[in-house]
Amino acid sequence: QVQLVESGGGLVQAGGSLRLSCAASGRTASNYAMGWFRQAPGREREFVATISGSGSLTNYKDSVKGRFTISRDNAKKTVYLQMNSLKPEDTAVYYCAARYVTTRSTIEKDYSAWGQGTQVTVSS
Question: What is the pLDDT of residues 46-99, one digit of tens each?
């Protein structure tokens, strides 16, 4: 099994930036496809961004395009989510997830391993 640990969450003012990290360990291949999801209070978990195993292909939720960037360092087995121009509606617990294949997916059930989540709070 892959173990995933997120870090980098916190409290930031609207318009600010945060960078989330997700470190993988355990049964890992450095080129698993990875994704970021988020869950706001009272809402279902939703897709945010995904990246292919090579890092060359990405997808984003429409509302974060142009503000968030997903990237990866396969040598470090770490995936990042750079979040700029943050808005109060970005407030949520952010989860990283891994697929045991190299192809991206925006669908939650396609992911086999999940981190514990990191809280991001954006104040207005």
Answer: 999 999 999 999 999 999 999 999 999 999 999 999 999 999 999 999 999 999
Q: What angle do CA 113, 116, 120 make, to 5 degrees?
A: 125
Break the chain down into helix, strand, coil percent, rounded to 5.
Answer: 5, 50, 45
What strands, in cross-sheet order, belong to the sheet with 78-83? Answer: 2-7, 18-26, 78-83, 68-73
pLDDT tens-digit readout, 8-48: 999 999 999 999 999 998 876 678 999 999 999 999 999 99
Q: What are 19's strand-pairing partners?
A: 82
Residue type, 113: A
The beta-strand segments (E) located in the chain are: 2-7, 10-13, 18-26, 34-39, 46-51, 58-60, 68-73, 78-83, 92-98, 113-114, 118-123
Cβ pair 31, 85 in contact under 8 A? no
